[in-house]
Amino acid sequence: MTIELPIDIETVKGFLDNSEGEALYQYALQASPLGPCLEIGSYCGKSTIYIATACRKTDSVLYALDHHRGSEEHQPGEEYYDPDLYDEKDQVIDSFREFRRTITRAGLTDTVIPIIASTNIASKKWQTPLSMVFIDGGHSLEAALGDYRSWAGHIVKNGILAIHDIFTDPEEGGQAPYQVWKMACASGLFKEIEKVKSLGLLRRI
Ligand code: MG
Predict the structure, then answer these.
(1) Following DSSP, what letter does each residue of 1-52 receive, concatenated?
(2) From ligand 1's centre to the CA of 4, what distance in Å?
(3) What is the domain-level CATH number for residue 99?
(4) Distance 181 CA to ligand 1 centre (A)
(5) 36-71, pLDDT tens digit by residue?
(6) Of the listed 67, 68, 74, 139, which one is catalytic?
């Protein structure tokens, strides 16, 4: 499958596999005529590019939610720390500069609406129905469950819930996204569609 993306995706920092990105694109293309999409955990904009390219085609929009201070694993000394994203002046991770650069380079500023906030505050008064929600935020159980509880209820009928980093084997990775996946499957609200590598896709019944 070849998708025409507006920039060379290999130049964008991130942890999304190309086949996972392509699946996000295809499902966003199907779902986004039903309403705006929302992703949680935009980081430097890799998944944003895939979803927003589909949204632009259907004249929809993508809300890209991230506090841009990095998850636990992005902090100095941790496994996925990237010194390029460290703001020396304020001594914090700031992935927003890189995110904005990505979206601007891709010409997607009229499709992507960045929300620089935590899930808790962004969802507090949220009322807009969503056609697709992609959960790829913090991977602690508290964070992953919080994202599911805050956003899954806003997905419209036939809309898509996508969850990244689902590992059934604890040797392969953290278990929080898998717990959320199981919870969604057991909720009676979603039907499993497919898994592409560690990306799980469900449809709102
Ligand atoms: Mg991820």
Answers:
(1) -----SS-GGGS-----HHHHHHHHHHHHHHGGGS-EEEE--TTSHHHHHHH
(2) 22
(3) 3.40.50.150
(4) 14
(5) 999 999 999 999 999 999 999 999 999 999 999 999
(6) 139
